[in-house]
Amino acid sequence: MTSPPAKLAIVKLSALGDVIHALPVARALRRALPAAELTWIVEAREYAILRDHPDLDRVIPVNTRLWRRLVWRPGGAREVWGKVGRLRRRVRGAGFDVALDLQGLLKSGVLTAYTGAPVRIGFSASRCRERLSALFTNRHVTPPPEAVHVVDQYLSLLGPLGIRGIAPEFHIPVRPAAEGVMDDFLAEQGLKPRERLVALNPGAGRPEKRWPVSHFRTLAERLGGEAGARVLLLWGPDEVHMARQIATGLSSRAVLAPPTDLDELTALLRRSSLMIAADTGPLHLAAAVGTPCLGLFGPTRAERNGPYGARCRGLQSPDGTMARLSPAEALAAAQALLDASDP
Fold first, then answer.
1. pTM
2. Helix, strand, or coil here: 312?
């Protein structure tokens, strides 16, 4: 480009972990182009992680999940078409110079095209999850071989803007109100600030990505008995039954987290000594706030999707099934991470 772009759009819609992995793109753009106006287009469900973010000037939430539900109802197609038309006019009217499609799906490609930006950057067709999405971009990037992790692949999309060699930086704003609420909760549970607190998150977005509850329960028991840790059981929508199954009958008392919004979950993760979870949003959120993490991976690849950071590790199942990862393997890795983090 002959001059620095004045207005840029990032299109990264979902899911939570993927949006977190893309945060270094916003930080790199803000540092390289401090005067630029930076907008992020994201699904409404993931909006909370981006609201009031200091690297962004504006966040535009869309709700493609709602659109898919509405389109099958009587009159729903017309309603969806109206919503899409209003969104198109909104993003086209913003006058973007550059749009970056980090998603590589047809829906993200269409939204990237809606911006009307003369420079639309995305992955080459062979690297898109849906190859046809490359039709909507006009600067195509093939990440270099050394960009194995998805964080580094996202950053490679900044190459056409002359932004290269960036060390990834994650920034999750601190929400004082949520921090105070979670401090009070942990104090009520008798947890001391320097106590080893290991967060376990048994949920995952897809059943095949979940580690068996029985494995989590064995690990929780051994963390209390052999690692001297208190266990904090996290849960999301429709997951509390798993957390309760893990907690029932443990010889060392586990702490069941209260219902949390994203800000409160972030506060709990900041206060944890270690986070252990499958490939799910809370795992990547913990890594982004600097908490040591142990990721458990079966059908997805730890080297590409694992928790990102020097104090993080991913355990990969030998056969792609979560059940083949044993509690003993997880305990050994967790103990090593805890020992490395001790002052």
1. 0.95
2. strand
Looking at the structure, do residues 145 and 208 belong to the same domain, yes or no?
A: no
Task: Check if the beta carbon of residue 162 is closer than 8 Å to that of residue 247.
Answer: no
In a domain, 259, yes or no: yes
Report phi then psi at 96, rounded to 5.
-70, 140
Which CATH number goes with the domain that contains 83? 3.40.50.2000
Give the pLDDT band (50/70/90) at residue 343. Answer: low
The CA-atom distances, in angstroms, between 125 and each of 11, 18, 59 are 17, 19, 27
Residue 232 domain flag? yes
Does some domain include residue 181? yes
Per residue in 36-82, pLDDT tens?
999 999 999 999 999 999 999 999 999 988 777 776 787 777 887 78
- Domain extent, residue 81, equals 7-161
DSSP string, 22-72: HHHHHHHHHHH-TTSEEEEEEEGGGGGGTTT-TT-SEEEEE-HHHHHHHTT
Residue 76: left if φ>0, alpha if ψ -120 to 50, beta else—which one?
A: alpha
pLDDT, tens digit, 9 for 90 and up, residues 113-160: 999 999 999 999 999 999 999 999 999 999 999 999 999 999 999 999
Indicate whether 331 belongs to any domain: yes
C-alpha dist (Å) from residue 13 to 189, 294, 328? 37, 26, 37
pLDDT band at 257 (very low <50, low <70, confident <90, very high): very high
Residues 57 and 187 in one domain: no
The domain boundary, picked from 161, 196, 222, lies at: 161
Domain count, the chain: 2
User: Angle at the Cα of 15 (from 13 to 16), degrees rounded to 5?
Assistant: 110
Q: Distance (Å, rounded) from C-alpha 172 to C-alpha 288?
A: 7
Quote the CA–CA distance of 56 and 282 in Å, as a whole number. Answer: 22
